[in-house]
Amino acid sequence: MTFDSVIVVDWSAAGKPTTGGDSIWIAIATPQGTTAENIATRHGAEVRLSELIADALTQGTRLLLACDFAYGAPRGLAERLTGQPHALALWDWLVARVTDTPKNGTNYRDIAAEMNRHFTGGGPFWGNGQKADTPDLPRLKPALPPELAHFRRAETVGHEQGLQPKTIWQLAGAGAVGAQSLTGIPVLHRLRAAHAGKIAVWPLEPTANAPVVIAEAYLSLLKTDVAALVAGGMTADEAQTRTHAKAFFDLSQTGKLGDLMAPNEPQELLQAEGWYLGAGMAKALQAQRKTLTPPRLRNDCFAMPQGVAWTPVDAALARLRAALHPVTGIQTVPLHSALGHVLAVDVTAQRANPPHANSAVDGYGFAHAATGSGICQLPLAQGRAAAGQPFTGTVPHGQAVRILTGAILPHGVDTVVLEEDCAISATAIAFDGPIKPRANTRRAGEDLPQGATALQKGHKLRAPDLALLAATGTGQVQTFRRLRVGVLSTGDEITSNAAALHQIYDANRPMLLALATGWGYDAIDLGHAPDTPNDIREKLTLGAQTTDVILTSGGASAGDEDHVSKLLSTEGTLSSWRIAMKPGRPLALAIWNGIPVLGLPGNPVAALTCALIFARPTLSTLAGAGWVEPQRFTVPAAFSKSKKAGRREYLRARLNADGHAEVFQSEGSGRISGLAWATGLIELPDAATEVTPGMPVSFLPYTGMGLT
Ligand code: AMP
Ligand code: MG
Questions:
Q1: Probe residue for ligand 1, chosen from 496, 513, 553, 562 as the CB with the greatest number of ligand atoms within 8 Å
Q2: Most exposed residue of 38, 178, 217, 500, measured as fewest CB within 10 angstroms of its CB?
Q3: Domain 314-325+483-622 falls under CATH 3.40.50.790
């Protein structure tokens, strides 16, 4: 079962409009990422879900919608109420009776009481939310009618795995699901009717051909993943819906969702009671998530040893390199859409290249042993060998056969003579020997034998790589999901509409977004935050939900107006690195809600330099492609400079007509024109240096740092 998007809903039976904890959350997982919406009323949710279903139908995409309430009751209830055992009969019965107002005024308790009245001696529902019993609906758990079980089979298998799914009979109290079922089933019933023929409810009816499938979810399957988000400050409901939506979506992409939708239970039981996705599979699912979701970076991964004042560039790079690992999950993609993807595993040749010995030229093939030195005349065998049209027989020893480039060498042929080297008649050829054994032929597997490593894990796929993988029989590859890089600008002075003189246009955001795109990542514009903790917090928290790493610019130092570092140090896990480098003041590094944040300086020149030197290898490692070094060329200097000891310096530079490096006229770190003027950077070593014209210096071309 594959779906293009997965929606997971945490339902609520609240009696008035509610948001936040214990209200309705809708998480939507798509290839672009996972988003979540919080909706105050059941009416609002019904409208929104109907919209999302309509969108999927118009776009022709397949949608899975999973809600966290029981879609059926233990066997016996539906039959008692309707005369039919099927859960959908119970749906029909409920939709005709349960009412709900736009402000969440619902009569579900009356309906539960009505159901109880169908049983002599008291029915199964309890939990009226009152201090005392009400007619036909007790406050506390009653003795069950003998024909009804306490739990559905799906709940029992959950209990066997250490989970605690509750019974639909319970309408009130912590984790109670009954009221959610009674208020939710009518909504699903109406959605199914509104999009008739397009929606099927799993496993109550066949779903194979339905563009929209409604299934039941139990949102405690992935507690560890949920706990990680909750620890980052997310409400439990939002974390549950996001985690499960993403997990079901990932499973759908890897073709494994079908395992969750094939319970080993009789059809009749499934249709009578319903089933939730992954019932009885929580352990397997949790284990699988571990392999799908790489571990997060540790909170203290950016910590510098105590007492370090100024960190040399190389030491800072070494520390980063040691702290980082890939953070994106693994997916399977067809080769034709894998350009730019990073391989998550080594790829071995499924087939040798070439798969069979063949001719490298157009000419005549024969057995080398039948030839010698001097003029060789060989009679021509009937037929010919061409690429894609093999010669089927055996060429008799001492005879030659016409053969074309790429043709498999026929039996009896191990050597080919070029047609230009032959005298040719209708019945024979002659050439001047000797000719080397196996001349003009290609051995089977001479390029790559079967089973050899074609490309290694961490390799970023380029056009020629696709040729190699295609030739060796690889049709799909396992790659790291593309890294999502968020970019946030900060500063009160930054606007997109610089009307007043104290305002300036945002130069860093387009630059950093373009860098991330050029490096092959999904660049996500997180906008701009003024210098207030609330704004920065909100943008970072929102950003952390849709990205794998965030680059900020501005406010990264330790001054009064350096709000990014202030916020990250009070509420995140800031490590402020003072790097001995010019341009570039301290680099702020932190983990925010589990996501690494690189706080770059605000000056565009320093922002670009720090991005190229620090962010580039960092992102490459997070993306699974490993640490990368800039390309360096030694060229003669076309400038003079006296540089102090104790810090590394980067100068905007380009090569002149003689191939010597000239530098931009100003080293001012606000001089953006110099960035555009340059084609690379000159790197001057940490030690004191006296550069004079003609002296060799290190030139780092932009192109060698992936700048396009
Ligand atoms: P900060 O690092 O916030 O102290 O900023 C240092 C300098 O860079 C200040 O002059 C800022 O106005 C400038 N600056 C900060 N962010 C940007 C940006 N996104 N675009 C252009 N200039 C910026
Ligand atoms: Mg600022």
A1: 553
A2: 500
A3: no
